[in-house]
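so the lab meeting is tmrw and i was supposed to have these ready like two days ago... anyway. pasting both below. for each one the top line is the aa sequence and the line under it is the structure tokens. i havent really looked at them closely yet so no promises
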Amino acid sequence: MQWSEKNTAHRWCKWHVLERVNECLGSKYTSNKEFRDNFHLMLNEMLTIDEFEKGWAALLKQYGLEENGFLQQIYETRDKWVKSYFKGVFCARMTSTQRSESANHMLKNILSPGCTLHQFIQQYMKLQYIRDEEENYEERRNKLVSLEKECSFWLN
């Protein structure tokens, strides 16, 4: 199969989006744990587009941010960074920059600069195993939620 631009899904790294949110919202984001937790919950736990849309509107209303220019701007590009808009998009196990940067940070914390190649490989393999387990857990959880919704549709 030949590569085609029209078959490519372009996504933004969530880590970079959150960095921009932090930069543009300032203390509303950094100092207000409840707001930050709600924002992250909406990004990480919303399973459907409808859930995201309702959650986004409620979040803006709750914190009086309906007129915030930055939030209006990122909302317009939500299909690039909101997880619920990617459902069913095959990513060939591609990871975001966040995961790559996070892995670098974690490895730097557990390895000394003078470690042997063998030590590096052992630690990297442990890190990869943990990441694979987390991803497998999320896939199983999403399949269960989809199955529950499908079953409830047929039972109602």
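ok protien two:
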Amino acid sequence: MSEKHVMILGIGNILFCDEGTGVRVVEQMQERYDFPDSVSLVDGGVLGLNLLGTMSEADHLIVVDAIRNRGKPGDLYRIEGDAIPDRIRMKNSLHQIDFLESLTMCQALDHVPETVIVGVEPEDIETCTLEMTETTQARIDDIIAMVLAELDRLSIPYKPRPEGNRSDVPRHSL
């Protein structure tokens, strides 16, 4: 039996403050950790339906995003199974709707990856800036820990990179 393919997919728009949280988390994970070849880290940005082919290749999909869930800024969320469509319909941005459509379209390809969404309640997704709010920035390590916990659940190994080897990391972006 071949190794299960795990995709860590960061989605969001880095031009709008906390909206880019998912992308920022993937960037940090690429810089800080080494993963086996069966794990891909993907900067999905706001590609929506263009992610369909990429998503359908995964056996397990860990999506990282800013999630508006009527909580307090900085609240962390883990969403899976039947709760995914409901939470996204409550949502906030067009890329989330496109993401749900892409996930639904995977059914047409007869390959829906086991999907978990992790993220944070954003403080600001409207201000045009590359900087995240302090509230969201302070939760990046916690979100990374949530993603690593998902890898642990799947028995996927990873290891921290030494501090000196954290630059010039190749990125998988679309």
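from a quick look at the 2nd one: The longest helix spans residues 94-108. Residues 6-165 form a domain with the Rossmann fold fold (CATH 3.40.50.1450). will dig more after coffe
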